[in-house]
Amino acid sequence: MIRPGEIVDFYVHGDESLVLTGRQCLRLAPIATLIMQLIPCSRAELEAALVEQFGEPPAGELDSQLEALAEHGLLTLDADWGQAPSHS
Amino acid sequence: MLAVHGLDATVGVDLEGSGLERDEFVRLWGRCHVEDDQPASVVEAKPGESMELLTQSITRGLVTANIGRLLMLHAGCVADPKSGRALAYVAPGGTGKSTLTRQLGRRFGYVTDETVGIEPDTLRIHPYPKPVTLAASPGEEKIENSPDDLGLLPAPESVHLHRLVVLRRSATVTEPTFTDLDLLDAVGMLAPETSSLAQLAKPLHLLAQIHERLGCTLVEYSESADVVEWCLAQLEAP
Question: In chain B, what are the domains?
Fold first, then answer.
């Protein structure tokens, strides 16, 4: 699962946004904004929504986006966040 | 005891053992000086401490007293003596707030050169007319100056935010520019120039509401004299 981090406030304007943590205020581009609007959710759910909105991303782009947002404390990634869903 | 009132709070000031003189303190802080025998907190001046460092401690004390209550912008501010309409100019420390304040405050009431405390619901401003921190001449060490000595007009009794400006001073700017900021640019520039913003309820939404009501202009300049008339016009316009 991908979950929100310690967010003080999140303000969406058009397809961009600002997010305030206890440390900083960051401006988010459309893809990051949509990610923040969708979580908490699974990586698969996130990917499906982003593909529907923005089309197929270059390989690895979603993961690097998520890792960058996690580095800023905007979201947290569970240990198994990057694994493909099991189909049993 | 000796105390300072500003930003809708009062802190006691203990000069004992510091070497700072009470009469000089009262002269510099005349517009904020009160006597209070039971202040909620006390700032103790350290031995050998300068008046400038003491001012910083007092400001921190007043800001702390208003955490979660007032929106506190790192800004200078002047207000129209009749209407109480105020212009707040937001800028990082050491980038021209006090210099501009000295020029604007001779035509409009001096509210502060450091921290503007705003009630979120009403946009009422609580003045903090502290000593103005300026160098006697360029390159010299900054010292505290009495607002009276600088000829600054008193703040009106009731002050409310009317116009909001972000200042950017750069020696490379030849002609000042005045750019209306869109909402995200404005909030993104204002948020870092605040104290304890995260302690307010929905702080980004609050800054966005203020932008929607008043707008926000980016002023890029090199000499404060070049933007004085524009600033004054912001309060004189209907």
Answer: 2-65 (no CATH), 71-236 (3.40.50)
Beta strand B85-90 with B159-169 is: parallel
Q: Give the SS3 label for residue A60.
A: coil
Q: What residues does each domain of chain A span?
A: 2-75
Q: Which long-range contacts (CB under 8 A, 24 or more apart) does A26-33 make?
A: A26/A72, A26/A74, A27/B184, A27/B188, A30/A54, A31/A65, A32/A65, A32/A69
Full-model pTM: 0.91
Of residues A20, A22, A24, nearest to B204 (C-beta): A20
Residue B152 has pLDDT above 90, yes or no: yes
Establish, for the pair of chains A and B, how many residue pairs have beta carbons separated by less than 8 Å: 39
C-alpha B230/C-alpha B217 separation (Å) is: 11
Average pLDDT, rounded, for chain B? 94
| ipTM for the assembly | 0.87
